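User: Can you model how pyridoxal-5'-phosphate sits in this protein?
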Amino acid sequence: MAYLDHAATTPMLPAAIAATTAELGRVGNPSSLHTPGRAARRVVEESREALAEGVGARPGEVVFTSGGTEADNLAVKGLYWSRVAADGRRRRVLVGAGEHHAVLDAAAWLSREQGAQVEPLPLDAVGRVRLDALAESLARDPGDVALVSVLWANNEVGTIQPVAEIVELAHAYGIPVHSDAVQAAGQLDVRFATSGLDALTLTGHKIGGPVGAGALVLRRDADVTPVLHGGGQERDVRSGTLDAAAYAGFAAALTEVVAGRADEAVRLAGLRDELVRRVLDAVPDAELNGDPDPAGRLPGNAHFSFPGCEGDSLLLLLDARDVFCSTGSACSAGVAEPSHVLLAMGASEERARGSLRFSLGHTSTEADVDALAEAIGPAVERASRAGVAAHRVS
Ligand SMILES: Cc1ncc(COP(=O)(O)O)c(C=O)c1O
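Assistant: Here's the modeled complex, given as structure tokens:
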């Protein structure tokens, strides 16, 4: 089989499986004072140190969460609430128009329920947040902005965002910036302190760790109102029993990934370029989405639109040939919605609907690219015939 959906989730690394399973067999709540509790606490703190080291942060800045979704919600809602509590005018939330739903929907909820004014930051044609639009939006009235949140790299089209410039623009007015680096951390040099960010989202299962472990890396002086209340763990920012086994696996994965990341990025980019070339050979009218400059996108990401095809039909035709990938569309009530990312990049609904993402990771090989190159031509041909037939009957 050719698994080309590493951006959805990637297999756990052997070191992460070993670290997690070693802890699963032990007992002890890391908050308990007895010996097993203290042993579990040691695992949590060692994992925190390893994670901090891996992303260039201080251990005290790592707040463990259940994953990327929770970390994004904590950043967006938590920063909003604390900024509004300090000054009731700060109700504008500036988010990239192509953010992951964990950010977009958290912001939309703040707008529906909490009086936030959410302003989507427009994207250019390759999916990058437009800095001129951000600068203009900030300058209009910096005193009413609660926060800025922008992906480090887009999860659909892989476009790398100008995080440093965004931080510079927002910090000129003292406005905090959050970035979701869930997709970036495994492939790019993500360093928290050097980025200048106030908050950064990570998750384990996109880098070879377990599902259900993530972190919000948060500056010590960043004020965040908790979303979860309870036992007061994680500097009272995120209550809930600490999951030593999951964090141990998460930390082991990040440590291994960071050690080999530069070489792996080169390997993946080579495979990805080959994949792009062979898909375009097999389907000459396929359109590559995202940044055509390989340096502007995640090394493991290739994203295409196939004119005249529905992404879902194509996905299933490829699935029947043991080639596994993703569509950009989200299914809502059984109807495929075109990808909001592609629409924000100015693509037509048809182009957005007929799109597929192929994402590579640590188990990817030339054989995966071969399998896709063989399967994609016939699959597109069948999907476009089905598209024409559907048009005729409707
Ligand atoms: C960019 C991005 N943010 C957040 C998430 C959610 O992370 P998790 O699955 O750990 O909740 C994902 C996963 O699809 C993602 O790609």
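A couple of observations from the model: The longest strand covers residues 92-96. Residues 244-282 form the longest helix (39 residues).
User: Helpful, thanks.
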